[in-house]
Specification:
Blueprint: H1 2-19, H2 38-65, H3 76-92, H4 96-110, H5 115-147, E1 149-151, E2 166-168
Antiparallel strand pairs: 1-2
Helix pairs in contact: 1-2, 1-3, 2-3, 3-4, 3-5, 4-5
């Protein structure tokens, strides 16, 4: 069950933030292993290891998007939710709306009332910037293949590459 696996991954990330100790297996005393098949367990560790491997970059992005809050001041439950979502979106490539919807529902369950909007906003900024970066990288790859086009990042909206976004090289 993917929802339960996502919740286990979030919980393990939270534990890591609290203790700094890295887990090499799912703590059976905390979670019902019968609810996780082998692909769910793999998913949990892919998300968890993605957080650990990219924690510094994700923390920097959280600080950037939170406007006025340093990452270390953010409630650890919220941070664990954000880190888990960022890792899943990048590592597993789960569609962002699915991840955001689940993570916001976890925020309603485990965090404060104000946290849902905060988390939704941070993840929205993360996804928009990520989609722009991916679109620009794709355009750069195309340019490098001698198609003679480049992408104007100002014209990319919500991950859609508009026809007008392609402009010829001016050489």
């Amino acid at each position: 069950m993917r929802k339960y696996a996502r919740e286990v991954a979030f919980s393990m990330v939270y534990g890591y933030l609290m203790t700094g100790d890295r887990e090499d297996k799912i703590p059976e005393e905390l979670f019902d292993g019968r609810k996780l098949d082998s692909s769910d367990a793999d998913f949990v560790f892919d998300v968890y290891n993605g957080v650990i491997g990219c924690a510094d970059r994700y923390e920097e992005l959280i600080g950037k998007y939170s406007e006025g809050f340093r990452s270390e001041r953010i409630y650890r439950v919220d941070k664990a939710l954000l880190l888990s979502a960022m890792s899943e979106i990048e590592t597993i490539k789960t569609p962002a709306p699915v991840v955001i919807d689940e993570i916001v529902s976890f925020a309603k369950k485990y965090s404060t009332e104000k946290s849902t909007g905060f988390i939704n906003g941070i993840l929205g900024s993360f996804v928009r910037e990520r989609e722009k970066r991916i679109a620009c990288e794709a355009a750069e790859e195309d340019k490098n293949r001698n198609f003679g086009i480049k992408l104007d990042p100002r014209s990319v909206k919500e991950g859609e590459i508009l026809q007008k976004a392609f402009i010829p090289d001016e050489e």
